[in-house]
Amino acid sequence: MADFYQNGITTTLHQLSNRPIEEMESELLAFSKKRPLGLLLPSLFSELEGEAMPEIINHISKVPYLNEIVIGLDRASKEQYQHAIKFFDKLPQHHRILWNDGPRLQAIDSELAELGLAPKELGKGRNVWYCMGYILATGRTESIALHDCDILTYDRSLLAKLIYPVAHPQFNYEFCKGYYARVADGKINGRVSRLLVTPLLRALKRTVGNNEYLEFMDSFRYPLAGEFSFRRDVLNDIRIPSDWGLEIGVLSEMHRNYSHNRLCQVDIAETYDHKHQDLSLHNDQGGLSKMSIDITKALFRKLATQGFTFTNESFRTLKATYFRIALDFVETYHNDALMNGLELDIHREEKAVEMFAQNIMKAGQSFLENPMETPFIPSWNRVISAVPDILDRIKDAVEQDYEEYRY
């Protein structure tokens, strides 16, 4: 059971009671009559063959209030796309699949690339961006939820809680971030959030000085959660990163575009577990190591746009400050784990902290060497300005793929 404490400057919506899911879904169904609701699922084909995705679809098929489900499918051949059509056919709601590797969407991507308007990296950011364009094209939904497709502890109550803040007609939220306890199998998970993001934000407050942006970011209980919801008008202006900085980048864009009373976070699950990335201690181009570098650079870029100047000396000071704060957090989490009868390996935690500290320097060096790096995908407003019929063409490509391969 959560407390009711409001931390920082972002509204927190708690789970204060065990409200029946049927009651909440009944309200959402009523809301959907005036404000149609949708779901965005960025997926790899491999996830369709995993343990989590079939169970997620079983739960979603029972959801009564969704007007549209948009699935972004990555790394799929023609045969795998056809398999995906059959896989998602069990959904009674209107749904479509963006076959991102198919020739039609690939042709559109190539055209946008020639204009410098396409995502520069493969991955979740690119997948989500094209799905957002398709949602703008269809105009079928006003409020949309997005969650990952590898959630092993999924229950449809997660979706209801996630979309409720942007669906309720008396709420004025444009964006909602989900949060939850990353505890599973008797262990505390979420190392990048616990041991990198939070102590790094605290270290930045000490070294560059506290400011409203850092206070905003530090308000989020789980800033790296892949679950959020938003109103459709958010899609026009948002510029999202194509690298591992997606979640931090989305929060930064919300901070740039909206006042605090239009944003919130909500407790969506008592337990949450999904597939875990390897720490990649000896490979900074993969796993949590690359993720930590991308996230750290995303924070540096945002602070630089606010006028902060970084040097090699400031990065060394930041690293030392972070290291001390993060080690203190290891002790804190260890005590929390013991009190709750959970496991926490101090050696592994401190190895992660050591790697993250090294990667702060790597991220800083990369930032200094290439300060003009812009991993952000252009906003859809900009793309539409350059190619006015682009949304219709994306919609047509998706429909043509579906009609050609659904039998």
From TrEMBL:
It comes from Aliiglaciecola lipolytica E3. Gene3D superfamilies: Spore Coat Polysaccharide Biosynthesis Protein SpsA, Chain A. This is Glycosyl transferase. InterPro entries: Nucleotide-diphossugar_trans.
